[in-house]
Amino acid sequence: MLSFLIGLLLSAVFAPSGMAEQVLKMATTTSTENTGLLPVLDAPFEKKHKARIDVIAVGSGKALKLGENGDVDIVFVHDPEAEQKFVAAGYGVDRKAVMHNDFIIVGPEADPAGIRAAKTADEAFKIIAEAKAGFVSRGDESGTHVKEKNLWEKAGLQPEDGWYLSVGQGMGAVLRMADDKAYYTLTDRGTFLASRDKLTVKLLFEGDPVLFNPYHVMAVNPEKHKHVNYRLAKEYIDYVTGPKGQKAIGDFKVGGQQLFFPDAPFR
């Protein structure tokens, strides 16, 4: 019996590497997870490659930092300027466009500040500031937070304590907080659509071209961090930008609403 158990142990230890489960460590933004997209998008890849994708969902800034430190194999985020710096500094390779949606401003249905009348996103922010209406900021250097800061800057404003809350939380948590307090917030459309049945805040402003929200994927550079699983990262990039991944993104809906729109060049 002992020799049989030892045999099983040795066979497990010396099994061909192709039989072992592969692991891909991914840092991504909270919106890809909060919407429910990732489980649907990743399942076919995991099955085909006999792999497990370990997801760390944080703001885009933190996700890129994880890539910079070599703590993950791949980064899937939505902060184009920071992504370009990440690649230019040599931390990321094979950056590819995957999909897009847009940012929107949501708030109490009564719209006490009156942002429905705004013509641009920065004008909506000015109206909120002038009314000192409550606003919840992610405050986490995510792609959404970076966009929000750009809009305040474009409006020529510095938001003030009292009516402005910077909470350092993901998009789902911020939406719930805005809902509880009847405050305004900036959100990606996908997370809002996936959560809106549980919220009372409403979509109050949309459509400004500046609110375009593109997502890109990139591998962590194996020349910077030799231990990363670059081969599997490259396989994943090819998948999400290829016909099957792009179809999964385009077909993904919540309540009949499409949350993301495929962007890969093959289309």
UniProtKB/TrEMBL annotation:
Domain (PBP): residue spans on this chain: 26-243
**Secretion signal, residue range per the UniProt entry:** 1-20
InterPro entries xref list: ABC-Tungstate_binding (IPR052738), PBP_domain (IPR024370)
Q: Pfam families recorded for this chain?
A: PBP_like_2
Q: Which SUPFAM superfamilies does the entry mention?
A: Periplasmic binding protein-like II
The keyword Signal belongs to this UniProt entry's keyword annotation: yes
Q: What UniProt keywords are attached to this protein's entry?
A: Signal
Protein name listed in UniProt: PBP domain-containing protein
